[in-house]
Amino acid sequence: MAEERGTHDHDHDHDHDHDLTFQPNIEDTEAGRYELMTYAIRELLMEKGHLTPDELRAAQEKVESLQHSDGAKVIAKAWTDVDFKNRLLDDGNAALAEVGVDAGAAKMTVVENTEDVQNVVVCTLCSCYPRAVLGMPPDWYRSKSYRSRVVIEPRQVLSEFGTNVPDDMTVRVHDSLADLRYLVIPRRPEGTDGWSEDQLAAIVTRDTMVGVANPIAS
Amino acid sequence: MADTDDPRRGYHDIGGKDYGAIDPDVTEMKPWERQSTAISNALGAAGRHIYVTDESRRAREQMGEPLYSDLDYYERSTESMKMILVEKGLFSEEELEARMSEIAGRMAEARK
């Protein structure tokens, strides 16, 4: 996101640095309380030397760069390289580091869907999510509806996502924590023999790596 | 603060309850939401540790049920960050509120 800095001409009683008192993008609507709070926190932290413009810019770029396509590449590699898949299942953080993904301090547990098991991820206590591979969590993952219900009626919840799990299949729901995140390796669909990793990655959506959907060869 | 129906639970501990139908719509992150997340990440970065994940979780569990329920996801994370930074004395509530008013004024001026 590029920040537009406008001009302003009011007086300041301190040395003025435009990196510290930026002008946010002007919207038609008034900023809400928490938008204002964010800008105020930013200014105060910068003025007091706890945050530099460079640090914030780098952190913003990082947030913007996190995309579920990174996770999809990892899944495609796992589908085509069984040794890599086994390393992922064994130690998610270490295997992700191999492909240049820093999964952070929280433990990354990778679970695999099979013909007998469908894995689903939730965080009932807040909205912990494997951001390093999937980006920011979607609205429904953060909703009280999903958080509360998927642990007691996962089949019903999955059906609301259009995923119907046969009765003889196990549904395993994984509840995340601040210190423990989950990533699902979905099942590689039939009809994808000989596909390149790029082709495979293209059918691995965010929802399939949370476990509420399954990839379709198309 | 506990759940009044079940004193074993905190208000954030909602697994197994029923909050109704899931809205599948996904919205774009707003610029301020991204900025709040980035500030929080920058403060938590290795070597900084001014504000870390466990503190952020603790603040959510401490803010009280009325506020927790009233705020959406990014509002809650911004409130949590503010609580911890005030607690650590990086700035005061009064300082922050004054700055928020100043910024609101600046933005209103720019909209004219």
What would the keywords be for this entry?
heterodimer; A: about 220 residues; alpha/beta; Nitrile Hydratase, Chain A; 2 domains; two-stranded parallel sheet; 11 helices; about 40% helix; globular; disordered N terminus; B: about 110 residues; mainly alpha; 5 helices
Short summary of the structure?
The complex is a heterodimer of chains A (about 220) and B (about 110). With about 220 residues, chain A is α/β, with parallel strands linked by helices.
The N- to C-terminal Cα distance of chain B equals 44 Å
Number of domains of chain B: 1
SS-based structural class of chain A? alpha/beta
Mean pLDDT of chain A: 90
Helix content of chain B: 55-70%
Break the fold down into its secondary structure elements and pairings.
The complex is a heterodimer of chains A (218) and B (112).
Chain A: H1 33-47, H2 53-65, H3 68-80, H4 82-90, H5 92-98, E1 107-112, E2 117-122, H6 131-134, H7 139-142, H8 144-149, H9 154-160, E3 170-175, E4 180-185, H10 197-202, H11 206-210
Parallel strand pairs in A: 1-4, 2-3
Helix pairs in contact in A: 3-4, 4-5
Chain B: H1 31-44, H2 53-62, H3 65-70, H4 73-87, H5 93-111
Describe the structure.
- The complex is a heterodimer of chains A (218) and B (112).
- Chain A is an alpha/beta fold.
- Chain A has 2 domains: 17-65, no CATH class; 66-210, Nitrile Hydratase, Chain A.
- Chain A is 41% helix and 11% strand.
- Chain A contains 11 helices and 4 strands.
- Chain A has helices at residues 33-47, 53-65, 68-80, 82-90, 92-98, 131-134, 139-142, 144-149, 154-160, 197-202, 206-210; strands spanning 107-112, 117-122, 170-175, 180-185.
- In chain A, the strands form 2 sheets. Chain A has a two-stranded parallel ribbon with strand order 1-4. Chain A has a two-stranded parallel sheet with strand order 2-3.
- In chain A, helix 4 crosses helix 5.
- The longest helix of chain A has 15 residues, at 33-47.
- The radius of gyration of chain A is 21 Å and the shape is globular.
- Chain B is mostly helical and 112 residues long.
- Chain B has one domain (31-111).
- Helix content of chain B is 57%, strand content 0%.
- Chain B has 5 helices and no strands.
- In chain B, helix 2 packs across helix 4.
- The longest helix of chain B has 19 residues, at 93-111.
- Chain B is globular and about 45 Å long.
- Chains A and B meet through helix 1, helix 2, helix 7 and helix 8 of A and helix 1, helix 2, helix 4 and helix 5 of B.
